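Page 37, continued from 36.
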């Protein structure tokens, strides 16, 4: 059955998401006000709430929108590609941890990602959306790893999901739980450690 009503205004969607991202980064999750987003985007509150009924729903959409701006490059050098992508993940997490004015003086502050995890636990439909956002993005990296496996850059038995979990899991744990810094040398050591058991014998020296 065809959907009734007006077609969705993609230009309005973009304005709302850009305004929401600015609000979220400036005020943090606690100060994230949906009504202010509607005002800044120049849309009616009803227009915004039809698309995203709560601030949790809108915040998930903002994170998905931000992730769409993060490239996943495949240069043929799987180590370099994973180091680059892990660095982009870390940059994004650092950026979200500084939301609301948090920074180096408050390295253990609760960030937007932690708030979304809590929202996913409170609301099953938010959990579905959060998992869908990460699954969609992770597919790009998993495909990159699998292409490296198929061309012989990784062992045939390499499990792309397990390899990527080692990288992403360590980054999220370090940033969200321990609060320790994630710099370039750490990312390189992390990727090397994850790849150690996945590289063909001649590469594992």
């Amino acid at each position: 059955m065809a959907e009734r009503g007006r077609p969705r205004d993609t230009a309005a969607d973009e304005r709302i998401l850009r305004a929401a991202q600015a609000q979220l980064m400036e005020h943090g999750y606690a100060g994230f006000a949906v009504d202010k987003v509607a005002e800044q985007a120049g849309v009616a509150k009803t227009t915004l709430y039809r698309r995203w009924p709560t601030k949790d729903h809108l915040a998930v959409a903002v994170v998905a929108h931000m992730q769409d701006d993060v490239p996943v490059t495949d240069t043929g050098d799987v180590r370099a590609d994973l180091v680059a992508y892990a660095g982009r993940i870390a940059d994004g997490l650092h950026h979200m941890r500084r939301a609301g004015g948090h920074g180096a003086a408050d390295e253990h502050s609760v960030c937007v990602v932690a708030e979304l995890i809590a929202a996913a636990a409170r609301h099953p439909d938010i959990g579905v959306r959060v998992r869908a956002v990460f699954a969609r993005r992770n597919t790009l990296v998993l495909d990159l790893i699998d292409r490296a496996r198929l061309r012989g850059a990784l062992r045939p038995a390499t499990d792309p999901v397990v390899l990527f979990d080692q990288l992403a899991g360590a980054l999220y744990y370090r940033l969200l739980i321990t609060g320790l810094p994630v710099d370039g040398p750490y990312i390189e050591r992390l990727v090397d450690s994850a790849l150690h058991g996945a590289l063909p014998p001649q590469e594992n020296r």
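The radius of gyration is 19 Å. Flag for discussion at group meeting. The longest helix spans residues 124-150.
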